[in-house]
């Protein structure tokens, strides 16, 4: 987590991956403040670059920082125009790497400033081998046939295949051939968490109830739903509330029933988190 001071009394807190040489940011997840988050980040990098000597020191550090932006094909055009502006104005301070699934959704002025590198999706048999390796390292039985079913349903998406394997094991183990294989459940939980964080009001409970119920009907284990929601909330909640969030996670984890009957407890947990989120300081924007 990093704090960006934009103006005199304005602070944005958002999660990203950082090293001395690069920064990774999922701008799609910053739906409300992606523009401010990106500009604050670039400004910090540019200010640091202005203080760095033109000649590299003895450690041969790079004179610029790489910014890796994910899901660029799923953001609004105004954000893409901002990326183009950053490319034009801050090329000496930072280099931008854009990651996307469909480059046709990237504006042409942005594409023209980039070198396109296509990374092919893994083949189905390669995903099968990865799933089998995971089962060996985690010490549980996984037949090649069931691994093939998961890999085929994931449509060459390795992450979705791994998350589907996790969900299947949480729901029923040992595996059976007729066992349902939920796909995209993690994306649904990310959406739910984003909605709750954007508007932690009681009426939001009614909006997310259908999504939670759909996950339960698709045999995603309630404890897995709870765990993934907590992971998303921890990325955005203020540090002073994390201990309380850990407490309520443990509290509901012990009391969750199995199957669709867990819906009420999951809603209760979300409502509890909303009350925590609303206690946040109004002077800070937590993303």
UniProtKB/TrEMBL annotation:
**What taxonomic classification does the UniProt entry list for its organism?**
Eukaryota, Viridiplantae, Streptophyta, Embryophyta, Tracheophyta
Protein species of origin: Anthurium amnicola
SUPFAM superfamilies according to UniProt: P-loop containing nucleoside triphosphate hydrolases (SSF52540), post-AAA+ oligomerization domain-like (SSF48019)
The organism's place on the tree of life at top rank: Eukaryota
Provide the Gene Ontology terms for cellular component: DNA replication factor C complex; nucleus
Enumerate the Pfam families for this protein: RCF1-5-like_lid, RFC_C
Q: What is this protein called?
A: Replication factor C subunit 3
Entries under InterPro entries matching the protein: DNA_pol3_clamp-load_cplx_C (IPR008921), DNA_Rep/Repair_Clamp_Loader (IPR050238), P-loop_NTPase (IPR027417)
A single Gene Ontology MF term assigned here is:
DNA binding
Q: Name one GO biological process term.
A: DNA repair
């Amino acid at each position: 987590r990093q704090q960006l001071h934009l103006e005199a009394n304005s602070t944005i807190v958002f999660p990203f991956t950082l090293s001395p040489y690069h920064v990774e940011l999922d701008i799609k997840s910053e739906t409300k403040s992606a523009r401010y988050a990106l500009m604050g980040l670039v400004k910090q990098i540019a200010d640091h670059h202005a203080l760095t000597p033109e000649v590299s020191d003895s450690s041969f550090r790079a004179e610029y920082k790489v910014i890796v932006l994910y899901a660029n094909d799923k953001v609004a055009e105004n954000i893409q125009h901002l990326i183009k502006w950053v490319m034009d104005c801050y090329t000496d301070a930072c280099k931008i790497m854009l990651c996307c699934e469909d480059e046709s959704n990237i504006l042409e002025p942005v594409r023209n400033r980039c070198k396109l590198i296509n990374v092919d999706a893994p083949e189905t048999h390669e995903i099968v081998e990865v799933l089998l390796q995971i089962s060996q390292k985690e010490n549980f039985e996984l037949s090649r046939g069931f691994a093939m079913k998961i890999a085929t349903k994931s449509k060459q998406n390795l992450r979705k295949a791994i998350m589907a394997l996790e969900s299947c094991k949480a729901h029923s183990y040992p595996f059976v051939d007729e066992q349902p294989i939920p796909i995209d459940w993690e994306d649904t939980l990310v959406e739910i968490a984003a909605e709750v964080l954007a508007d932690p009001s009681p009426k939001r409970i009614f909006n997310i109830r259908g999504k939670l119920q759909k996950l339960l009907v698709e045999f995603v284990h309630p404890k897995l739903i709870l765990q993934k929601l907590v992971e998303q909330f921890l990325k955005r909640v203020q540090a002073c509330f994390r201990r309380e969030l850990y407490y309520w996670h443990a509290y509901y984890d012990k009391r969750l029933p199995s199957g669709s009957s867990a819906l009420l407890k999951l809603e209760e947990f979300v409502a509890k988190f909303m009350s925590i989120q609303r206690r946040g300081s109004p002077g800070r924007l937590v993303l």
